[in-house]
Design brief:
alpha+beta, 5-stranded mixed beta sheet, two-stranded antiparallel sheet, 7 helices
C-alpha cells in the first residue's frame, strides 16, 4: 500500500515537472515570436517609407488615368502596411514590460469629449447620435497618453461599426474604487467564439468586420489596460455591443 502510494506520488511529481517544463518552453517560444515580429516590423519601416515616397513623386508626373490609379493603390497599400508596422512596434513595446507609465491625475471625461470632437466629421457623415452619461468625479490617476489611446480606439471602433439606430452611448462611473469607461453601439452582435478572442493579437471577426484597420487596436487597448492593472470586457446587449474598461482609481 505504501509502495503504491509512493509510486503514485512520484508519477504526479514527474507529471508536474513535465508540465512546468512545457509551460517554460511555451513562454520562451512566445517571447521569441514577439521579438521576431518586432524585428521584422522595424526592418519594414524604411522600405515602406521609400516606396510611399517614390510612388507619390511618380503620381505627380503620371500621364494617364490608369497610371494614376495604380500609383494611388500603391500609396494606399504602403500606408496601410506602415500603419500595421507602427501598431506591431507599439504593441511589442507595451508587451515587453519595459514601458514605465507616466501617471498624472486627469479628468477623463474632458479627454473623452475631445476625442468625440475629433471624430465629428465621421459622426455627422454617418448621422450618428451620441449620448453621454458621465460620472461627476472624472478624476483618475493614469498615463494620459496611453489612456487617451484606449478612449480613442474604442470610440473609433464604435463609429466604424455602428448600425441600425446609429446610436453610441458613452458612460463613465466609479464603483468600489474602480473607474468604468463604457462604450455601447447599436449594430451587429459578436459571436460567442469571436468574443473570446476579440482582444487577442490580429483578431478580426470576418463575418462582421471589414478589411480596414490593422486588427491590433483592441489588443493594444488590452495591453495598456493591463499595464494599469485593469480589465477589458465586452458584452452583447440589447440592440448592439458594449465594451467596458475597468481601471483601479489608484492604479
Amino acid at each position: 500500500m505504501a509502495d503504491k502510494l509512493k509510486d503514485n506520488i512520484t508519477k504526479l511529481e514527474n507529471a508536474n515537472l513535465m508540465l512546468k517544463q512545457d509551460l517554460i518552453e511555451k513562454e520562451k517560444q512566445e517571447r521569441l515570436r514577439k521579438q521576431l515580429i518586432a524585428n521584422i516590423s522595424h526592418e519594414f519601416k524604411t522600405p515602406l517609407t521609400i516606396i510611399s515616397g517614390y510612388s507619390q513623386l511618380m503620381l505627380t508626373e503620371a500621364k494617364n488615368e490608369e497610371d494614376r490609379k495604380n500609383l494611388e493603390l500603391m500609396i494606399n497599400e504602403s500606408e496601410r502596411l506602415s500603419d500595421l508596422v507602427h501598431e506591431f512596434l507599439e504593441l511589442s513595446k507595451l508587451e515587453s514590460g519595459n514601458i514605465v507609465l507616466k501617471k498624472e491625475t486627469i479628468n477623463i471625461n474632458e479627454i473623452i469629449l475631445k476625442e468625440i470632437d475629433k471624430l465629428k466629421v465621421d459622426i455627422e457623415d454617418k448621422k450618428i447620435k451620441i449620448e453621454t452619461n458621465f460620472s461627476d468625479d472624472g478624476m483618475i490617476e493614469v498615463d494620459q497618453k496611453q489612456i487617451t489611446r484606449v478612449i480613442e480606439n474604442l470610440l473609433t471602433n464604435a463609429v466604424k461599426f455602428v448600425k441600425g439606430k446609429n446610436l453610441i452611448k458613452i458612460s463613465t462611473y466609479t464603483k468600489d474604487n474602480y473607474f468604468y469607461y463604457e462604450v455601447f453601439n447599436t449594430g451587429n452582435k459578436i459571436k460567442k467564439e469571436d468574443m473570446e478572442n476579440i482582444f487577442n493579437s490580429y483578431y478580426k471577426d470576418k463575418s462582421a468586420r471589414n478589411k480596414k484597420g490593422t486588427g491590433l487596436g483592441l489588443t493594444i487597448v488590452k495591453a495598456i489596460v493591463d499595464l494599469h492593472e485593469g480589465k477589458c470586457e465586452v458584452e452583447n446587449v440589447k440592440d448592439g455591443v458594449k465594451f467596458i474598461i475597468i481601471i483601479p482609481k489608484d492604479s
